[in-house]
Amino acid sequence: MPRRGPLCKNTTSMTSVDKDPRQPDRDAKWRLFRVAIGRGWALRCPHCGAGPLYSGWVHLLPACPRCGLVYERNQGDTWLFTTVGDRVFIGLLVAIIFFGVPRDHPRLAILSFIVVGVALIWTTPRRWGVGTALHYLSRAYSKDADDPIPPRVPNETPTNGDER
Fold first, then answer.
1. pLDDT tens per residue across span 63-86
2. Burial (CB count <10 Å: 0-12, 13-18, 19+), residue 127
């Protein structure tokens, strides 16, 4: 019989019997992270991917019209995530000033400020959508009984492209 252990060459992977059924595997958590962030960037509900996050440019809806996920259970819940996302651009401006670009190359500094400013404004809804998705992930991973996340809604669109 081959030896089993972390240092032996003839180790076998864990079977489904060895895994704790209450804990999703790492791949499932990583997949949930990627999907939720992508949906947030696409301005869609991070849970179902079908409902919109905003009405208008940056007015966050209270809940998803499709699956019923409440985006912010308490007002200001997404504040941390959106603030950190905003500070990336502010950090770029600070770096431009810190490294003396305005002193040595004033035209390049003006152009840099304009480019960073336009990127800051242009990506605002998408960055805030990612912030909402990060807040959803913090709720999904914590599994708080007082903060229920609605069950998954099956996709109603046909997979073969035909209309029903």
1. 999 988 988 888 888 888 888 888
2. buried
